[in-house]
């Protein structure tokens, strides 16, 4: 111990230097080791294949139109014929059709090989596929002034006066229902004499003056134009009713248990409510290729399978989601089947509709059709006549009915 305290100054300096050099070497070694481990860690997180798989071009007209929209709204989309090898954009992307989207698109004559053999309804639909702007003939801009909790939206045809009136007298009553504000609108197109519709304009004008719940646009009322009815309503909703909390949308031949719908909605959490889309969901469906069927879609028009979608007879969704559907619908090419189209828009938003056993868009068993208690437990049933609606509604609202 004595010798340590009397160590010469020069030897102590040498010891200090050695310690400092050793510390530097340790720091360098630790740094190299850390970088080696970090590089290996990063390599382990780097995907072997591309995260975004390039879109594959196909020959169907709708698919090519959708590819074009994808390119417009997402310039980073890569187009390939097959595999992962990039190619130059095909010529058809430069063939953009008429400047006015509501003029006939005569490209379809050459781009759809079997166009001339398609049913007339398909030919008409394809000629005006890009048109989404139609004059409004009847509007109700104040129907949502009370900021409804539930907006009932019914797709109808002008001659269906009896159906609309039955709905108004039963499940579609506007006002305060179960302590919640409910509003109602009917969606109408403009029937053409070409389709052999009678002229009922005077009756329609009289109906509008009395009830003030009709929304009508000047487009041809056809089955394939139900998709137009959908996107035009979303545009109207965005402009006139953006504060409605929920929407129940259905056909004019469905029966809806409005009280049960409100009860279901009141039980939703705030977080779950914004993305809610409930109905009778159909999954793993594909286009029908039999030209005799109502839902026939030829391969020259569309290739692929359908995303999950709720049957168009009726479904329930949030007002917030309706606003997002309106925005994203501009990125999805119109499709001739409206409920499939809505499923496509949901997929674009990264959402999947929720299946609920209370929505029966394909009806219920015949033995239950006249059972009052069955309707107490169901949200929506398709299809019912005006007479049946007037029969069923008292079963819903009369508390003395025992269904224990």
From TrEMBL:
It is an enzyme of class 2 (transferase). It comes from Collichthys lucidus (Big head croaker). This is Hexosyltransferase. Its EC number is 2.4.1.-. The chain crosses the membrane at residues 14-36. One of its GO terms (cellular component) is Golgi membrane. The lineage of its organism: Eukaryota, Metazoa, Chordata, Craniata, Vertebrata. It catalyses: a beta-D-galactosyl-(1->4)-N-acetyl-beta-D-glucosaminyl derivative + UDP-N-acetyl-alpha-D-glucosamine = an N-acetyl-beta-D-glucosaminyl-(1->3)-beta-D-galactosyl-(1->4)-N-acetyl-beta-D-glucosaminyl derivative + UDP + H(+). Interacts with B3GNT8; this interaction greatly increases B3GNT2 catalytic activity, independently of B3GNT8 enzymatic activity. GO terms for molecular function: N-acetyllactosaminide beta-1,3-N-acetylglucosaminyltransferase activity. Its main location: Golgi. One of its GO terms (biological process) is protein O-linked glycosylation. It is a single-pass type II membrane protein. Belongs to the glycosyltransferase 31 family. Pathway: Protein modification; protein glycosylation. Keywords: Glycoprotein, Glycosyltransferase, Golgi apparatus, Manganese, Membrane, Signal-anchor, Transferase, Transmembrane, Transmembrane helix. Its cofactor is Mn(2+).
